[in-house]
Structures are given as C-alpha cells and as structure tokens.
Amino acid sequence: MRGSLKLFTWFGIPVHLHWSFGLIFLYALWVGYANNLDALGTMWLMGFFMALFGCVLLHEYGHALTARRYGVQTQDIILTPIGGIARLERMPEKPVQEFLVAIAGPMVNVVLAIALFFLGKLIFQGERWELFNWILEQNLLFTGEEESVDVFEESGIPSSGLLFYMPVLVVTNIALVVFNLIPAFPMDGGRIFRALLAMRMGRVRATQVASWLGQAIAILFVVVGLWQGAFTLALIGLFVFTTARSENAMVRMDSLLRRFRARDLMRPTFTRLVLNDWMQTPISLLRQGLERHFLVFDMEDRLVGTLEESAIIAALRKNDLSTEISQYAKPNVKVVHEDENLDYVYHLLQQQGNSILAVVEDGNLAGVIDQVGLQNFLRLHAEDR
Length: 385
Ligand SMILES: [Zn+2]
Fold this sequence. Notes:
The structure is a single chain. By secondary structure, this protein is an alpha/beta fold. Helices cover about 60% and strands about 15% of the residues. Helix 13 (about 340-350) links the parallel strand 9 and strand 10. The longest helix has about 30 residues, at about 40-70. The protein is elongated and about 90 Å long. The chain binds zinc ion. Zinc ion binds near residues 59, 63, 180 and 188.
C-alpha cells in the first residue's frame, strides 16, 4: 500500500505501518513534555503505545485467522493511528461466518485483558497488587488523574513504569472491546449486526439497514468528537460514514451483477484488428467513436492480444499512423464463457483493469465485453441497484 512501511510478515500476512503512525510518536513526545515526564517516563509512554498497537494488531489477526478458516485470505494488515485494518479479500457471505470473523477481533481483546490482569497478579504482590487494582478501578471509572498522581507520591512508586501502565493496558483492552462492539457498520459491532439481520432478511436489505445505522452513529461520532475535542473519534466517524456508504453500494451492485451473465453484456459485433495492420485503422475507428477497445489477431486468425484506447491515443499523440499494431498491442486476453456471472466479469474489468474481454460460446469467439459496455450497463440499471 502506498505511503506505508512494511514491518514484517507473520502467518503469511504482511503487516504495514501507515506513515501517519509517526504522529503517535510525536503525540507521545508531546504528552511527555506536557506532563513534565523525564526521558525514562517518555520511553515508558512510547512503550505503552507500542503495547497498545500490539493489542490492536492481535485483534486484527483474530479477524484474519478466523477468515482464513473459511477460505478467505487477508491481503495485509495496516496499522494507522486510529486503529488497525485487516484487508480481507472479501467478507465471507454466510452470515454465521461473517458473525464469527467479526466477533473474533474483540474476543482477542477480552482474552488479552484477562491475561494481562492475571499476569499483573503474578508480578505484583501485597501493596503493589492493591495499587494495581486501584489504578484499574480509577481508569475503568474515568476518575481524575491528579488524584492518582497523589497516591503514587504517597506510596513512593513512580507514576510510570509497569505498575502504572499494565492496569491501564487492561482497561484499554476492555475499552477496545466496548468501542468495537458499537453497531456502527462497518465496525465489528456493525458487521455482527448485519450478520444477524442477514439471517432473517437477506444480505442486501441487511446491509442497507446496517449501513443506515452505521451512518447515523458515525454522524454522532463526528458531532461528539468535534464538541469534546476528541478528534480521533471525529476521524473514525468520518471513516465509518464513508465506508458504510461504499460497502452498501458495493453489496447492491454485487447482487445486481449476480442476476446477469456475460452474454447479457456481450457485444456480438466488433472489429477484428490484425497484428501487422497499421495504427491508422484503430485511430480512425476510435475517431468514429463506436469502439474504443479492440481484440487483436495474428495472421492465422488466432486471438493474441488487445489494443486499448489509451494505447491508441498515445499513437495518435505521436502521429504514429504507420506503425504496426503489434507495437501498441497488449499480449494476453482474458477469455470468459458466456455463462459466466457478471460479478466475475466486473472483477476482471474493474479490479484487474482489463479494458476488453473475449466471450466464448462452445469454444467459439462470440463477442466482446469492454469497459464502455459495463459502464453503460451499470448506468441503465442504476435504479435496480
Ligand atoms: Zn475489529
């Protein structure tokens, strides 16, 4: 992914750090400065942020590894200052599976909170263990920090270090569970909500309802975030709002595409270009404006490549009329069967960036599908979506 740094690969999944993650270090420095922390204190604070993002990373692995059980691979995991994103190839469509993949992340934080609590019990005894519990309670109840500093001064234990940050990390994991379970689609809680709805009303309708609720909560996040000066919350709200909309559009389009097959979009009449023809031919065809992408054949009439609009325009700019088409053609043509579902055709055109596909019927070339045809189709069916 652009603007990110690859950290390592674990369980076969690359972990990337988004550039804006550097802001966390600046933030830690600033907090350290504002609270008069010494170098060691600031180091502890940074260590705490690292541990926090370690927990976020494990949360994402919870999603990724559960998805893998259902045959869904994860492209990568990206860590950003507002959280982690496991980029799954797709969401499993069986509601039960989506439910389990979504809930696996927060479950990791439940386990971490419990594990850290008992680890603390193992490390700290007596008065220190009492202090551990006291800090835990104070953080759970959101009570004032000044008070806690006094208690630290009285007990003579520094207000940084493991005894201070471990209970804070326990509480942070609990907060991660609670926050992620808010039913703001596409956050985890929203995915769980969609999965539960989808068991009753079908995926398209369920996504629509979940997306509405997600957008409503997202607006609340933005308003409260700006009101309270919690800009992270406002940013998350913005992110939730836009992804809720786009995921809804995607699911609707998916269901539209699945109702059609390649033959519904195929154009049976098309110009066959030959490798050693001059570029003059496609240039004048493009000028007529009826066809923009072409299939290219060799002298034995075998399909060998494609010629895309962008290549023709490049030739036109250089006034390259008498160069052979072979110089501008792209080898390898994707061939689809006429019974192929349109969602696969969409994938080949939009995600893989092929401009034109060949459609076969009983082993014979029956027509083409190109970007232009697809855009037309989507526009015509805009209301069905
Ligand atoms: Zn999650």
